[in-house]
Design goal:
Radius of gyration of chain B: 17 Å
Radius of gyration of chain A: 33 Å
Shape of chain B: globular
Largest sheet of chain A: 6 strands, mixed, barrel
Number of domains of chain B: 1
Structural class of chain B: alpha/beta
Mean pLDDT of chain A: 86
Bound molecules: adenosine-5'-triphosphate, magnesium ion
Helix content of chain A: 55-70%
CATH architecture of chain B: 3-Layer(aba) Sandwich
Oligomer: heterodimer
Order of helices and strands of chain A: HHEHHEEHHEHEHEEHEHEHEHHHHEEHH
Number of strands of chain A: 12
Number of helices of chain B: 7
């Protein structure tokens, strides 16, 4: 085995430039993968953790996925009855027996639940009119379900209790209307109720859509504003294990019929983009590694062509086909291993470089640079990709070398 | 001499297939006994090298079979033949073939390292001793390209002897040597045959060298014309 390695190494060492090019090809594939993966996964994980922190893990809404079946349809399920122009009954919206449902859900372990009445409002301050979503909340329950309290940059959640008509605005929203902590504004609801409210706190979650469009008040005040006494239309749930969200959402929906979304479902558009993003990343890196594999294929094919005579000698000495094949597979593997190791260093350097880049963007979430995710796993994935590529690239030529018939070469002479 | 037959060609014919098939050797029957030192002689193109490849299990007869220690080697698979070459055969090619990236010493060590029966230090000692026998100890660390044709040939012979093979097949091993060195190579072959009981089959053009062997086999157009 040592001998085979020795022979493989001499072959590569005597072709320094070609070897270097192949090694660098592999190194670049590995390095870019690590840097890209750190960047993309960093962003994705940051985003997901933001969502998980900022929003409830499960939201139950006073909606149904399928419109309610009309009594006549229920009666004649398979009958030749067709209803047209049905006017739905003017049902009272809201989750029926909301507080009872909340109590039932809260009894499960690892679950925190809060009631909410969400509705549209207008904020009027000075000459500015801005629309926003107002969430009526119970602060003591809310602080266990979302990170609203942690995200406050001014004021406090208790302000809702201590001030007669308190409201909490997102930082973007406050900026839009030009109001700040302590200012009083007029809140107008679609139900026609107008209330003077005082800003008792401002939050910034980092999720642009929330900061620009959301506001919070006491549940009672929201119910008055929307003229819907004792009604809640959302139940917000936080779990100690977020991986249970989808399953629990399904079982709650099956039980109560109300549309119940886990955070994955609520954000499935964005999570879908992540899948595409990852696909692009993997194909880019595969492309680099395929090019690198061609480099390996090329060098090994060249070596085998130049070394036909040596192969014949080795075979005449008594090297079997496995040993000959082993020499050239080892050469491919060596390029792969060295390339991978250089690639690891390169990848580490690139991620450090990315980490030092500073800029400011406001997309889905606000950020001031690349959020990077460091994990040993990326190094392993890149390394295994490179190994597979280099072994695959050397396999065909190695097999050809093993099949060389020594006498054919030797008879040729000189 | 009543020794065991070491290698035997029985009714061996080798034809290269092709649009115009070429007959390399035709109906060869040859027995070489253990400890024998024989010469194969004949005109250029008479099939000497071809016969040697067949005896060295590098080529496979079209008809007939090669027996080694009474066992039919033609029936063996390539893997087993490779094993046999490593363990029992030493081959010197007409055109000295050394591995260009290995030194003289490295080349001689390769068969022993492949066999793996000895430790690295012991292998090196043996290899140096072999080089010394051919007056090449000072050139141990030279690459083949730094050696003359004759020096390379001596390294190639030393390599063929590396695993103390039972059978040594040498194709014009003295082609590039002066008469003094050529004589020395033949002396070594003779000693290996007579002292160690190794079998040596050597192809040569030079009649005065051929006459020093135990027996001369004369080839003519791929057939044995004279044997004895
Ligand atoms: N690949 C080949 N294709 C066609 N003919 C071949 C081939 N190899 C050898 N021959 C022919 O087979 C015959 C035997 O060749 P071989 O090399 O065994 O002769 P030789 O006795 O060793 O000659 P020399 O003394 O010149 O080395 C020659 O006539 C040669 O031309
Ligand atoms: Mg010849």
């Amino acid at each position: 085995m040592r001998l085979i390695l020795d022979i493989a190494v001499t072959h590569l060492v005597h072709r320094k430039r070609q070897t270097l090019v192949s090694v660098l090809g592999v190194a670049m594939g590995v390095g870019f993968f690590i840097a890209m993966a750190a960047m993309m996964q960093g962003f994705q994980r940051y985003f997901v953790s933001k969502i998980i922190d900022v929003s409830p893990h499960i939201i139950m809404k006073d909606e149904f996925r399928t419109p309610p079946r009309q009594p006549v349809e229920q009666r004649y399920a398979n009958g030749a009855v067709r209803l047209l122009n049905v006017r739905p009954r003017d049902e009272r919206r809201g989750i029926k027996n909301g507080m009872v449902v909340i109590d039932a859900i809260a009894r499960q372990p690892g679950v925190a639940v809060a009631p909410t009445l969400a509705g549209q409002i207008f904020l009027r301050y000075g000459t500015k009119d801005v629309s926003a979503t107002l969430y009526g909340i119970e602060p003591d329950l809310e602080r266990r379900v979302t990170f609203l309290e942690q995200d406050l940059i001014a004021g406090s959640l208790n302000g809702l209790h201590t001030t007669a008509n308190g409201i909490i605005l997102g930082s973007g929203l406050a900026e839009k209307i030009g109001a700040s902590l302590g200012d009083s504004l007029s809140i107008i609801s679609p139900a026609g109720v107008i209330l003077k409210m005082k800003i008792v706190a401002i939050f910034r979650s980092g999720v642009t859509a929330k900061d620009n469009y959301e506001s919070f008040a006491l549940l009672k005040k929201a119910q008055i504003l929307q003229d819907r006494a004792n009604v809640i239309n959302q139940i917000r749930i936080r779990l100690s294990d977020i991986n249970q969200a989808a399953a629990l959402a399904r079982s709650l929906e099956a039980r109560y019929d109300y549309r119940t979304e886990s955070w994955e479902e609520t954000n499935k558009n964005v999570l879908g983009i992540f899948v595409i993003q990852n696909g692009i990343m993997y194909s880019t890196v595969s492309a680099i590694l395929i090019v690198a594999a061609f480099g390996i294929f090329n060098i090994i094919t060249t070596v085998i062509h130049e070394k036909e005579r040596d192969i014949a000698i080795l075979k005449s000495i008594g090297f079997n086909e496995d040993a000959i094949r082993g020499i050239f597979l080892l050469e491919g593997l060596a390029v792969g291993v060295i390339g991978t190791m250089i690639g690891w260093v390169l990848g580490y350097g690139l991620t450090e470089l990315l980490a030092s880049v500073r800029f400011s963007v406001e997309g889905f979430v606000k950020s001031e640079g690349f959020v990077l995710y460091y994990t040993f796993k990326h190094y392993l994935i890149a390394g295994s990709f490179a190994m597979v590529a280099s072994l695959a690239a050397s396999y065909l030529p190695a097999r050809k070398a093993a099949a060389v018939n020594p006498v054919d070469i030797i008879r040729g002479g000189v | 001499m009543n020794r065991k037959p070491l290698i035997e060609a029985r009714d061996v014919t080798r034809v290269l297939p092709g649009p115009v098939p070429v007959t390399l050797v035709w109906d060869i029957n040859l027995t070489v006994r253990q400890g024998e030192f024989i010469a194969i002689v004949g005109a250029s193109g008479s099939g000497k090298s071809s016969l040697l490849y067949l005896l060295g299990l590098l080529d496979v007869p079209t008809l007939g079979a090669i027996f080694f220690e009474g066992a039919n080697t033609t029936e063996l698979n390539r893997e087993a033949q490779a094993k046999m070459r490593l363990a029992h055969l030493g081959f010197v090619f007409q055109f000295h073939f050394l591995l260009p990236e290995f030194t003289a010493l490295g080349n001689v060590m390769i068969p022993m390292r492949k066999k793996g029966a000895l430790g690295e230090a012991e292998i090196e000692r043996e290899a140096r001793a072999l080089l010394a026998e051919f007056g090449m100890e000072e050139y141990a660390h030279r690459l083949p390209e730094e050696l003359s044709g004759g020096e390379r040939q001596r390294v190639a012979i030393a390599r063929a002897l590396a695993n103390r093979p039972a059978l040594i097949l040498a194709d014009e091993p003295t082609g590039n040597l002066d008469s003094k060195n050529a004589q020395q190579v033949f002396d070594i072959f003779k000693r290996m045959a007579e002292k160690n009981g190794q079998t040596v089959v050597v192809v040569t053009h030079e009649t005065h060298l051929a006459r020093q062997t135990h027996r001369q086999v004369q080839l003519l157009d791929g057939r044995i014309a004279a044997n004895g």
